[in-house]
Amino acid sequence: MNIASPPRRPRVYLAGFDVFRRDAREHGARLVAACAEFGFEGVYPLDAEAPADLDGPRKAAWIYRSNIDAIRAAEIVMANVNDFRGPGEPDSGTAFEIGYAAALGKEIWAYTSDAGTLIERVPSTAGSEGRICDRGYFVEDFGLAKNLMIACAARIVQGDARACLEAMAQGRTP
Known about the structure:
Blueprint: E1 11-15, H1 24-37, E2 41-43, H2 56-73, E3 76-80, H3 92-103, E4 107-112, H4 118-121, E5 124-127, E6 130-133, H5 148-151, E7 155-158, H6 161-170
Parallel strand pairs: 1-2, 1-3, 3-4, 4-7
Antiparallel strand pairs: 5-6
């Protein structure tokens, strides 16, 4: 008698600057639990523990390889693209992970509670050819909430991680 095993839940790599929170591990456990509620297997970057004997650069390389391997092993990447260290800009590591996942052909979902388009949210002044930010660069104006490379690579959900998981479970953005 051959008893079929239950189908494996889709593995979701949980990208985002949440790893920099003071309660990062606890927050990651809540994200993984929320994934399970919606029928996914959550993989949080801090699930893997770097060996204690590694110095800064070697530890960074270990974390990089671990995260790359976790993205490869996932079917889906779900990314927190809320503003991180400036208006309109998600964490650069998260942006890299989204790009890497896109290059691998992974399904990418992202969530943000930031409202409005980049042009509305990034402090800027009118110039003859467009809006210019405080540092002297054009602010892209495609009517998108995030840089076009992220907005075109991911299905972006307005809301938090739970809203994104709900949309993922339904297979569409709200």
